[in-house]
Amino acid sequence: MKPAPFSYERPRDLNAALAMLAANGSAKIIAGGQSLGPMLNLRLVQPELVVDISGLAALKRAESSRDELVLGALVTHADIEDGRTPDVTRGAMRGVAANIAYRAVRNRGTIGGSLSHADPAADWVSALAALGARLTLRSLAGARTLAVEAFVVGALESALHAGEIVEAIHVPARAVSAHWGYAKSCRKTGEFAHAIGAVLVDPAAATARVVIGAIDTAPIVVTDAAELFGGRVGADYKQRFDARIADLLIAKAGINDAVRRHIHVSVLKRAVHEAAA
Amino acid sequence: MRSERKFPSGGSGQGVGARLPRKEDDRLMRGRGQFVADIRVAGLQDVAFVRSPLAHARIRGIHVPERYRGSVFTAADLSGVSPIRAVSALPGFKISEQPVLASGKVRQVGELVAMCVAPTRAEAEDIAASVTLDLEELPAVYDMLKAREPGSALVHEHWGDNVFLETNYEVDIAAALDAPIKVTREISTARQCMSPLEGRGVVASFDRRLDQLTLHSAAQMPHITRSGLAECLGMEEGRIRVISPDVGGGFGHKGILLPEEVCLSWLTMNCGHPVRWIEDRREHLVASSNCREHHYRITAYADRDGTLRGIDCEATVDSGAYSSYPFSACLEAAQVASILPGPYRMPAYRCRTFSVATNKCPILPYRGVARTGVCFALELMLDLVAAEAGLEPGEVRLRNLVRPEQMPFDNITRKHFDSGDYPEAMRRALAAIDIDAIRARQGQGQTDGRRIGVGVSIYCEQAAHGTSVYAGWGIPMVPGHEQATARLTPDGGLELRVGVHSHGQGMETTLAQVAHEMLGMDVAKVRIILGDTAMTPYSTGTWGSRSMVMAGGAVAAACRELGERARRIGAKLLQHDPASVVLQNGEVRGVNGSVSLQAIAHTWYRRPQDLPADVDPGGLEVTQGYKPARDSGTFSYAAHAAVVAVDPDVGEVEILDYVIVEDGGVLVNPMVVDGQIYGGLAQGVGTALYEEMPFDTSGQPLATTLADYLLPGATEVPAARLDHMETPSPYTQFGVKGIGEGGAIAPPAAIANAVNDALRPLGVEMMQSPITPRRVVEAVLAARAAERNAA
Q1: How far is CA B350 from the centre of its chain?
Q2: CA–CA min distance A201, chain B (Å)
Q3: Which of B51, B447, B649 to probe by mutation at the A interface, max A CB count within 10 Å?
Q4: Pairing of strands B181-189, B768-769
Q5: Helices B747-759 and B670-685 meet at what angle, rounded to 10?
Q6: Whether CATH 3.30.390.50 fits A179-276
Q7: pLDDT digits (tens, 9 = 90+) for B501-522
Q8: Would you tell me which CATH number, out of the four given (3.30.365.10, 3.30.565.10, 3.30.70.260, 3.90.550.10), belongs to the domain B10-33+481-626?
Q9: What's residue B162's pLDDT?
Q10: Chain B environment of A243 (Cβ under 8 Å)
Q11: CATH of region B368-464+632-790
């Protein structure tokens, strides 16, 4: 399990990194290396060039304003878990970060790397979609922003163009009235989840965002989730949660296996209960 | 709770029964162990293998790029190398021949096809990636039950079927057929991979001066490895030295001769430089260490009061493509027939077994060997009998276990249980888990939607079984007397040489404790030498929970004789009649004084002029052999009890409490035993809930990384509460019994019984390991659907 030969560059600034990516179509970016490392060793990817962006200080910044938090792509899960970054989600992100894989992975793994890898079972893919986060993507041609749910398009498939990199994650502040629930089921501690449910419910504003994740493809993101609560989001949303609608949504996403659907619905229900607790 | 036996020297805190910290941990816990991958030899080159991507195919061609011709070797190059043949004389056994590099056909994914050598492993893998195989795919034999049917594709065509061996054992099954309780089920355990921290690894070199091949290999039976290598390479055994350095866990599969070991031995003798192969985790999962895959069709017969009337079973084991050396193919299934009755009395019994060849890698002995599957099948059936009889599962066991006053007891398959109080172990486990409190809690229901269940299991484990047991198998490895060499050094230290190996068992400590018990010598001055065919007496090695019984007995015998010789010299130095002096606390004592072993050693080596004229010319170096008074094996046993919480909608199982009551006879070092039990429990939890190597219909193994092959971690293993009983074996030195495997035997049954206890009110029954969330939810949904249909 040794990688095929590749060239390695460690650029000093973002523009240099973008130039390398533009010049080499098969280049792969390495940040924390928690996904790419094993894939290289298993020879599942055989890039000509690996661009190590871990030295780019500009991507390690974390800044918050009243309305949002901006996290550089190189912020690690442990940075968030340990509270080294500001928080506008009233603990929601910290809770998610603390349960990503194992501490060793969290020490090195980055939020931008996790999103770029676009593994449907990864926590940020679902959690940030529920929180309504947006991404800044940058290439030599300039920058654009995308909602997380538009960024992850399939299993290990993102909307990144050739030569483009995830630069920053913009997380909107969670309203004081908004309830957060996040549940996942893993075969064991630290393993990838086989079902994720994430809900951000604001009974005061009568809004709800609901995510059903770890479904083999991009998560199901329901930005206006009233239908899952009998047509309106109110204080009694826990009682009004409609498992049959959730089941239909999952079936519509192509999950034909009733057992898997049942597990997904049950995990989503856990998230709803956690939000209401 | 704990009883620690006091031997004469027990007061010193170092002898038999002392909870002595492990001597080897000073090295191992500081990262200073030396494993095969740590060995550096000048001129060493690395090997990577081209392995079969298909489970079953005819080899039409192997294409090596011109530039790599000198670095790639195939079966055609391996002149003079014989295939691996691991035979048995059991009637009807069919022999497999495993070429060390595939020729003609490949019979499993991962089978070695070509060997590539380069200065580094990465370069060797580059070369391997450049080799292309022209394979004609054949239908894969991937399901052991289908493989038994006529018309199945054949793994070995000339056999005419896929059955390595079929066995039948029957005692009056007709007498059970009218029993009022009759329960029949199909029960199965998944195929697993053993997954020690360290995989296999080989460094091979050739010493021209000694005309000797030196093979460093992570092996638990180095003398057997040497015999197997000699047979395959056509060499005298004296021209081969096998050194097994620190080994990071064996569990059975490191007792097996690897085709890689033969390949690298050939290679170093033909390329003129040392070569190395270190197994990576993907190779391990795909191509090395399969175990455990059993299937049972089993019927239990009982009276209304839960008394067992008989067991009738057809057991099938997926043996994989080949029988591994010294033996693997029907080790599991044929043992199933003899151990399925477990620790119970029953008047009738029948078991038919099939060892089936498939296009998977060979099934190898794994901690507990057949016992884990047997315990799972039998103990699940006992719970069903209890349900039918309307009794507590614990009560049904108490009614059927062999009773202490019946010991020693010859059971229905003529296993000779040496000693013990099985019902007491079960009673203690039930009390410790507080069965009444659990039942009360179940009556109240849980607030979180989960369901609580409690389960028990009990087994007895034959260990250190010897010549009389294995002679009938007719396999290359039959254990006889175990030998140990004890040598006093000129400065009064003690060197012990034993042919078993220690790869987690703590024998550098426990064997030193035995020596202390016999000679009174400080354990710090005792050095244990093992894992090297040039340095140690021949031994079949470490397997079958035999080392403490056998090597411990041999060390005691050698030390006893050494002590006797020292005592006679000491008497002379004290100018006493030998009959009037004793060896005590490391010195020879008479009425007028004493002389230390150190002084005695000094005299023998440095001042022989002071020795008596009639001194034993063998001096202070002794080799003695040992066998227990009866070699039919020691029988340790344990009762396990588990409490679980099951979420029926998500399928998660959490172990809330776990109790083990164990009797390993006299424990040389109870702390080491506790460690063995915890480690075994971790593996048992893996069998119960996590570990599974699935195959698709083309014979592809599907869990090829540790992301797919799940092992329990620290958070999944319960903090078990241990209780020791101590019934000495009447047949062994000190009354010790083998206990190395037991921890891994009972957990799957106890956990499954607890899950079934939790889910029984829902009409759900889990009869297959591992119990995964998917399997639980599937069964729950099926039960709900059945209930709806009935309504």
Answers
A1: 26
A2: 22
A3: B649
A4: parallel
A5: 50
A6: yes
A7: 999 999 999 999 999 999 999 9
A8: 3.30.365.10
A9: 98
A10: none
A11: 3.30.365.10
